[in-house]
Design brief:
The chain is α/β, with parallel strands linked by helices. It has two domains: 154 residues, Aspartate Aminotransferase, domain 1 (Alpha-Beta Complex); 231 residues, Type I PLP-dependent aspartate aminotransferase-like (Major domain) (Aspartate Aminotransferase, domain 2, 3-Layer(aba) Sandwich), CATH 3.40.640. It contains 13 helices and 13 strands. It is globular and about 70 Å long.
Length: 412
Amino acid sequence: MYNFSRKVNSEHSEDIKALMQHSTGKNLISFAGGMPNNDLFPVAEIDEIYTNLPREIKKIGFQYGPTSGYPPLRINLKKYLKKKGLPVRNNRILITTGSLQAISIITQEFVNEGDIILTENPSFVGALSVFETYRANVIGIPIDENGIIIEELKNTINRFSRKPKFLYLTPNFHNPAGIIYSLERKRQILEVLDGTGIILLEDDAYSDLYFLEKDKALTKPIKTITDYDVEIIYTGSFSKILGPGFRLGWMFASPTIFEKGENIKQALDACTSNFNQILANEFLAQNKLDDYLIFLRKEYLERKNLLQTALLKYMPKVVTWNEPKGGFYFWLKLPEILNSTEIFKKCIAKEVVFVTGRTFDPASKKDNRIRLAFSNMPKNQINKGVKIIAEVIVYFLEEHNSKTPNLKHINT
């Protein structure tokens, strides 16, 4: 028997292991993976970039680099963030090994065992696993179609005698809920946090993946709103806009927070891969990202429309959802009498998988939701997969109706 530390006991980490397994299983119709489809990657462009790199730059790619990141990438990433309206003059960029490392660094920087972290409910399972690892007291606050519910946020903050360390949000094309925060809701959050000393951790991996140009304005980062006394740490990633295999993310924060974060990263892995940073930098510097994003938006819009059409065609009326304006996800709401884990078990026997609602609940309890990711789906499998899931849902509805006669009014 090994005497493991308490940090290894994360229920959400186990969920992630299962999620990755189901995302890539052979012969499965998988709505599980919140990842790009392999056929969408800019392989030819990256091949061209590497082939044409000067030999001296290629050599640098094989070497250790600065803990803060490959300097040319930090310069070009600064330009990229400036286009989003972010305050680049008084903040610094730390390149991380994926944005999840940035979240981990920030948590290690501020959180001691038992400290309070506020999140949305549902929330990104990767962040939940980090918070659990550091033994935080994670409190989930419900959301609606416009974002975290303000009154619930106020009441939760007032309920504790201790100040929460930070509020973690994914406001743009939320994972798993697929929503985008309204601009009004983003400002209301800052009004609540103004002067409290509670840090806002804004995780923004999806804002470039809006489907329609008219919705681009909604993706404005909260950190661009600077007329409140709120410390905002902003994280981002190349995983959804270039490729998760690059394992490149960033933390964008005030100098003091940056410096402490840099110290933590030095102890974690010394530096992020120079090789990958050089390729990503050239992709930015050669202005290839804009054209690639246009291509991705078109592809993801087509997949979203196919999934929306299939849901409308097959799902019983008691299943509801919000049609996303960008990102990767649909978030289905089932009647309270149904359990998505039970539905999952029957679906996987029919070779269709998704992610259950309990996975994204900070308390790992609420389970009447289903996350469907369309980003990694072959287009010709979407209709078939939705039809199977709908049939299983109807099966469980009918089973409940037969056992509980007063529920027979449920419309399937």
